[in-house]
Each structure stands twice: as C-alpha cells, then as structure tokens.
Write a structure and sequence with these properties.
heterodimer; A: mainly alpha; 4 helices; globular; B: alpha/beta; Rossmann fold; seven-stranded mixed sheet
C-alpha cells in the first residue's frame, strides 16, 4: 500500500518517487497548497475507491497518514 | 464578448445603508427567483430570494430572543445555513465573529478570547470538537431546524454604524488582527463595487466565507444583483459544479487561475493536442486584431470544461501575473483584477466589464477616494472599517485624517486606473537612504520565460535576486547570469542586482499563496 500511495503522489505531482518516504510531509516538505492537495485527494479517491472527506484533508500530512486513512476507510 | 475599453456610466441601482435594506430590496425585486442552489445529501436544493428573507427572519428572531449585544462566533464549511446565520446574527443586533473553519482548537480559543466571543455557532460535521469546549454553543444543523417566525416583516431599527462583524486578517506577518466592520461598511462596499462590475449571469462560489472577499464580494454582491449563486461545498467538485451550473462569473484568488492554467495544459498534453492549442491561440489572437472572433468555436472543448458560459473571472487577494490575463483572454475568458483589503470591506478597486487595463487592479469604486501619500495607497470613504477590535493604538497607526493607510504602494495612471507596485514593509532602504521596491524589480524579471518565481532582497547593502526557475531552466546559472547582466545594463548602480541565487524548490508561502519573504531570508 505504501508503494502504491507513493507512486500515485509521484505521478500526480510529477516528482521522483524516490524523493518520498513514509514520513515525507506533503505540506511542509513538498510545500503543497490546498489546491494541489485537492488534486491529490481526487486522484486517491479514483485509485482506491474511498471518499476522502474535506474535514479530514488537513490531517493527512504524511504518506503514512494517507495509508492509515485509506486502510481505515476500507476496513 | 464586446469590448469598449473606454469608461462608461456606473451600473445603476439603489444605494443601501445596511443589510436589512439588502434583504428588503432583493426580496421585493426578485421574489421567487432563485438566489442560492446547493447539494444536500446529493439532492439539489434551490432557495428563492423570498426563502432567504424568511429564513433570515426566523433565525433573527431566535438570536434576538436569546442574545443581546453579544459577540457570536460563526465557524463551519461554506453552506447556505452559514450565510443565513451570518445575516441573522447581525440583524439581531449582535456581532458576528467570523472564524476560519480549519483553525485548530488552540488558535480558536485565542481568537474567541481576543474577540470576546461568548457563543459559538458551529458545524457539527466539520468542527465536532467544539461541542466539548467550555463554551455556550449551538450547531448549524440545529439552527436549520428553527421554525419560521410569526413576524412577516423586518420591523426593527438598525444602527448602520454600530459594529456588526469581526473578520480576522491573515497577513504575511502571521499575526491576526480583528477587523470590525459595521453594516454600513459592508452595504456601501456592495454598492460601490457593484457600480463598476456586474455579472451577466449566474455565479459559482468557491472561496471560503470567512474571508471578506469570499463572503461580501463573491456572495453578497451577486445576491444584490439578483443573480443565482451555486454554493460549491468542496474544492474536489469545482470542475463538476462548473460544468453543471454553467456560470457567467467566478470570483477567485490567483491560485485558482494558476491551477486552471496548469490543468488545461495537462489535459491537452495528455491528448497530444498541446501543439494544436498553441497554434490555435496564435491564429485566434491574430484574427482578433482584425475583429474576427472564433474563440467560441476554436476553444469550445476547453470552454465546456468551465460550463461553456464563463465570461469573467474576478481575481483578487494577491498578485496575479499579467501573462494569465492575456492567455485566458486568448480563450475568451476575461480576467478582471481587483484590489481589496479586509479593512476596506474589502473592495477598493476593480477592472470593469468593458473597461480594463492589464497589470492594473482597476478603477476606484464609486464614492471611494484614493489618495497616494508618499507612494502609499490611502483610502477614504464609507467602506473604511471602524477599527481593530480593542486596539486603539493599531487603529490610530493606520487611520489618519480619515484615510486608511493600506501599507500597499502604488500609483494612479492618467485614466484613474490603480496599479499596485509593492508592500511598504518590503521596501529596501539602502545605506544611502535610497528606497527600492523589490516587487517592482520582481515583476519586471518575471516577464522572462525562465523565471517561475523570484524574490529580491538586500544583503550587505546589495540587491540579491533569488530565483526559482521554470522546469526547463532549473540549475542553468549561465542563463540567469546573462539575464541579470542584461537587466542591469540600463539601471543606476544602486538598482542593479549584485547576486543571483537559484533555487530548486518553490518559495514557502502562506495559505493564500503569498510568498513568505521573511522565511525566505531565514532559509537563505
């Protein structure tokens, strides 16, 4: 799952996959803004078939957070 | 789109003094026309101007029976009930303290204290933690259930000049200031800006309501004009909402324009049509010069992504590069830049539907006076705030002789168009006392195709340009050394750039995508 998430971030944001690790902070390290995050959220929803709620977006800070979130929504 | 590009008469309408008059006027003039539509549990709900009137009246009765002269905080995602609650709190004689829905609990407590808020109206869905806070609170979900009032007319007195709402500014310095606006401030701003610009059709709202631009400009102004407003509930659905609701006008901050631009290129590239688009734009722009407009045909596919009816994008809140204005005009969408500041309720100037100038933030709003004092834009008129809440000292520093000193530098051209050149606090003062506006140098450098973002600052009494290049020019020191050499050629010695620093990453920015200059300095 971690690898799938990293691949998707890398594809959507057009950044090299090996620059990402589980603790990479999307907002602080990749300097993403709210509109970029929305792009990413839409991509995750399509790929994993889960709905990511607006109110939860601000809590999805790292690759690890995203993996945990998707797993909890799928559970 | 017909373009006059010379000044013409103000759009005519009734002057209003408060929000009660706004409701009276719209319910009388537009009655059962649709004012707002939105999705609720996947069902599309429509509310007429009469519905709005009745709903505000019901909640207004609730607030006036329960609270007197209280500061009531309002927090939650954009929604119809949020707007109704805002209007009802104010019309009940209480003060509405508008909060960012994404603040954490610690900041919220600080802002509630700063604004003396005693009650919180909150979204159970978006901000559930508020229920457990040690505050009197009522959820927006409960407020929707309040029954219609027995009164059928708003028959109470309004004090136009009394404090009505508190907005927090989100400056680049990070410190929040509580801006107090009266009903008159807001009503006059609606009137003043609507005299210059009007949407020809419906509007899709995408900006957060806790900003004066998102609420007073993108909601209350089209409402005043009797236009239908679709309330987007999540940025995830912006494209779907545009396609479905076919707006004539969008109110946005520059980040949206930049994102739209990126998305359009990404889409055409994925379909290998990027060369075709470049070619079509070139042809279309040449044809436009001889008054042949084929944009609706040539760019039909792209325009359909925005619903197919989008004529105007009103852009404010931060600087938008001129290149976007020209590029979108090529497609047939006119970006009209405006200038506003929360302390001025917020709009000071805006380009008009048929009278605009690229690079300018437009004509000064009706009944508003702008004077340039020592290069600083100063504003006088009914739109200027009452002051910063409980901070007389800070208020005195910015309001002098009736003029609000915006802290922005600029000038008016011979036709009355306002141009913003920079922030006063960013001015570089060299040891010889000379003042240099970094933004002026930056906007000149930004015209180069190799520069994505640039910041100019002073180091050891010399100017440094820190550049984040476009993808093609990343790390190309030689290219930029040449560019700066050419730039320096015609400049006086003190205005020349002594060093160039190249970055591999974007600059750090705040939530409104404004570059955090002080942070850049710390980093470098």
């Amino acid at each position: 799952m971690n690898e799938k998430v990293k691949s998707l971030i890398s594809r959507t944001l057009e950044i090299p996959k090996d620059s990402l690790n589980d603790k990479t902070n999307l907002v602080k390290d990749l300097e993403l803004e709210s509109l970029d995050l929305v792009d990413l959220v839409v991509a995750f929803e399509e790929e994993f078939g889960v709905e990511i709620l607006d109110k939860d977006i601000k809590n999805l800070q790292t690759v690890e957070d995203i993996v945990n979130y998707i797993e909890s929504r799928n559970a | 789109m017909k373009s006059l590009n010379k000044n013409y008469e103000y759009y005519k309408h009734t002057k209003i003094n408060n929000l009660k008059e706004l409701l009276d006027l719209t319910s009388n003039n537009y009655q059962d026309n649709i004012a707002f539509c939105f999705y609720q549990n996947n069902i599309k709900i429509k509310k007429s101007f009469n519905d709005v009137y009745k709903d505000v009246l019901a909640l207004r009765t609730y607030f006036s029976c329960n609270y007197k002269n209280k500061h009531i905080a309002l927090i939650g995602e954009n929604s119809y009930i949020w707007i109704i609650t805002f209007l009802a709190i104010i019309l009940s004689g209480n003060v509405c303290v508008v909060m960012d829905k994404d603040v954490d609990e610690k900041t919220l407590v600080k802002l509630l204290k700063l604004s003396d808020s005693k009650v919180i109206c909150y979204s159970k869905y978006y901000n559930p933690f508020i229920e457990n806070m040690n505050y009197k609170s009522i959820s927006l979900e409960e407020l929707t259930k309040i029954e219609e009032s027995k009164n059928h007319k708003i028959d109470f007195q309004i004090n136009d000049d009394k404090e009505a709402a508190i907005f927090f500014t989100s400056g680049t310095t990070g410190a929040n200031k509580a801006v107090v606006l009266s009903q008159k401030n807001m009503a006059r701003d609606i009137y003043a800006a609507s005299s210059l610009f009007k949407p020809d059709g419906s509007v899709v709202s995408v900006l957060p309501f806790h900003h004066a631009f998102g609420l007073i400009t993108s909601i209350l102004k089209p409402f005043y004009y009797g236009k239908e407003i679709f309330l987007n509930s999540s940025l995830k659905y912006v494209l779907r909402d545009l396609k479905e609701n076919k707006p004539d006008t969008l109110f946005v901050v520059p980040a949206f324009v930049e994102t739209f631009y990126r998305q359009i290129w990404k889409n055409v590239k994925s379909r290998h049509k990027d060369k075709l688009l470049k070619y079509s734009l070139k042809i279309s722009n040449s044809l436009l010069k001889i008054n042949i407009d084929l944009r609706k045909i040539l760019f039909k596919e792209i325009l359909e992504e925005f619903g197919g009816n989008l004529h105007y994008i009103i852009c404010g809140g931060a600087y938008l590069d001129k290149k976007y204005v020209k590029w979108f005009r090529g497609l047939g969408i006119e970006i009209l830049n405006g200038y506003g500041i929360t302390e001025c309720s917020p709009v000071v100037s805006v380009n008009r539907n048929l009278y605009y100038r690229d690079g300018s933030v437009g004509q000064i709003c009706r009944d508003v006076e702008v004077k340039i004092i020592d290069n600083e834009v100063c504003v006088k008129g009914d739109i200027v705030m009452k002051g910063y809440y409980k901070d007389k000292k800070a208020t005195k520093e910015v309001i002098k002789d009736g003029y609000f000193y915006t802290g922005d530098l600029g000038y008016l051209d011979k036709d009355g168009f306002l141009f913003i050149t920079g922030r006063k606090k960013n001015i570089i003062i060299l040891s010889n006392g000379e003042n240099i506006s970094p933004e002026e140098i930056e906007s000149s450098l930004l015209k180069d195709k190799g520069i994505m973002e640039v910041i100019v600052y002073e180091e050891g009494n010399k100017l440094v340009a820190s550049i984040y290049p476009t993808e093609e020019y990343l790390g190309n020191q030689e290219y930029f050394d040449n560019l700066i050499y050419k730039y320096n050629r015609n400049k006086p010695k003190n205005h020349q750039i002594a060093f160039v620093k190249l970055r591999m990453e974007e600059f750090p920015k705040n939530n409104n995508r404004k570059i955090l200059r002080s942070k850049v300095r710390e980093e470098e």
